[in-house]
Amino acid sequence: MAIVSLANVSKSYPSPERGAPRIVAVDDVSLEIEAGEVTGIIGYSGAGKSTLVRLINALEPATDGTVTIDGRAITGLPERELRAVRLGIGMIFQQFNLFEAKTVAQNVAYPLKVAGWGKAEITARVQELLDFVGLADKARAYPDQLSGGQKQRVGIARALATRPRILLADEATSALDPETTQEVLALLKRVNEEYGVTMVVITHEMDVIQSIATKVAVMDGGRVIEQGDVFDVFSDPQHASSRKFVSTVVQGVPSPAELAVLRERHAGRIATFSFRDGDAAQARVFVELAQAGLEFELVYGGINDIRGRAFGHLTLAIRGEEAAIDRALARIGELVAVTEPPIGDGAVGDGAVGGGAVGDGAVGDGAQDGEAR
Amino acid sequence: MDKLIDLGPEFWTAAGETLYMVFFTMLFGGLAGLVLGIGLYVTRTGGLLPNVVVNNVLNVLINFFRPIPFIIFIAAVQPLTRAVIGIGIGTNAAVFALSLAASFAIGRIVEQNLLTVKPGVIEAARSMGAGPWRILTTVVIGEALGPLILGYTFIIVAVIDMSAMAGFLGGGGLGYFAQLYGYRQFEPIVTWAAVLLIIVFVQIVQYLGNWLARKVLRR
Ligand SMILES: Nc1ncnc2c1ncn2[C@@H]1O[C@H](COP(=O)(O)OP(=O)(O)OP(=O)(O)O)[C@@H](O)[C@H]1O
Ligand SMILES: [Mg+2]
Predict the structure, then answer these.
(1) pLDDT tens-digit map of B54-112
(2) Domains of chain B
(3) What is the pTM of this model?
(4) Architecture of domain A2-249 in CATH?
(5) Which residues of B are less than 8 Å from A162 in CB distance?
(6) For the domain A256-369, what is the CATH code?
(7) Domain segments of chain A as ranges
(8) Quick one: which of A83, A123, A289, A293 has its CA closest to B135?
(9) With a CB-CB cutoff of 8 Å, which residues 123-182 of chain B face chain A?
(10) Which residue from A16, A314, B92, B189 has the highest number of Cβ atoms inside 10 Å of its Cβ?
(11) Which H or E run contains A30?
(12) Predicted ipTM?
């Protein structure tokens, strides 16, 4: 049974102007989160991600629908009982939100005091947690004496103090540099694997999804427009809007500005081929194009790795007779997903292409040796 | 100068009266202001215990009394002073008027300083299951302590200044002393001596306030 379950949940706020319709932040969302999973919530700014997560620990009451935690409906419970629910759900934040006037140890001890633990138990638990996050030597330091990564580790220790079964993270690594992000993600991964803590992580970073998420939900305009296995959603998004969002975070899909530059530099029709999980189709694509007597070059591309499964995108500039290209693309379309971005999509940003896609296995646009074999 | 030496006992009595007035004003007015400020802070929309009615009442109350110049305020509240203290003049009557006036100013200062606490910190405490009173007493006040101390320091200095006007109520104090023995009797040295002592008081208070705030803020 799902540990967190949202059934037709909506959240709206009164409009700031009189008479205007209410602002709908979360719109009729149904979502099941299984125990032990790490669910990534992605989507553009203003999509309702933070609001959705705050509905789970009832920091915001839902205006409609039912939120169920561990089999218990929490919607409509009195505030006093909600506080008890919140003790079982940890939360970490983008800006860490540590108590600046308290030491690291006092920060971690705070939720334990709220939960009514005894003094000796608190001391032991704080020590254990600081050891776990590797900050035992900082127990008496104040937050303003810590680096961002250390602050977030304190945040994690504090959120886990009462041994919650659920951890919510709202852009927990967005304020950190890439290296520190990796450290914090590694720690979160341990939290999930060693303690079996179920996590819901809001993010706009592919890194976060790639390294810790098992499930993902895409939000747009307050709705969850797509949800499922991370690999499926990222390698083959179904919804137009999630396709658009996914293409902004995965490797190897040219942005509209980059496309415009590619069109300027390369003659021919531009088409993107999407491959999943090492299917042999890549060689077939080249064979089909060659057999059709078409000339082509590789202009953009990249490979993504999600938990050991790979998917990638290659963009080719194809030259030849129009009808022959159409026939070839139709045949290839039976093997892999083919997209021909519409012309005039986006303005030319100068130098937008840069080095092409970066990241492992990425093929830069400088790799123009994809001539027909 | 001889005059000042002659007036020695009166001078020190006046200094004592000033300290007495400032101390008790800060005790009563300081507490009342703290309550007012916390009331304003917790009842505001989006606050810990939002309550539009209470918030509006407190706001109107403060906005009504705060702009009244203290010299007029003393006279205006005299009937109330008489009702509460039993007598309309004297040091205790002055403490009453001072406390009342100070509490409105302190209320605003407390509210403003509590508002410097980042909403994220309060949200973090809420996410841990803490209730509004616990958050107020164990998070908000602690986080705002540095600015609160500086705010109170500012108010003490203002009260020292206001207490000089207590002479009009026969409250005594250095202000009254300077007026009575210095100004009216054309003895500038006497006036300056009183002024000097007031400056010394202000400096000491400001120094202690800064020191304490720095200690709390660790910088
Ligand atoms: N307290 C509030 N009062 C009014 N409107 C709100 C409130 N909180 C959120 N909203 C609105 O709800 C919508 C969703 O906001 P939310 O913060 O959940 O988005 P988000 O997906 O987390 O965005 P971001 O990526 O920028 O953090 C926005 O339009 C926002 O303006
Ligand atoms: Mg957000």
Answers:
(1) 999 999 999 988 888 888 888 888 888 888 888 777 888 888 988 999 999 999 999 99
(2) 2-217 (1.10.3720.10)
(3) 0.83
(4) 3-Layer(aba) Sandwich (3.40)
(5) 128
(6) 3.30.70.260
(7) 2-249, 256-369
(8) A83
(9) 123-131, 134, 138-139, 142-143, 145
(10) A314
(11) strand A23-34
(12) 0.86
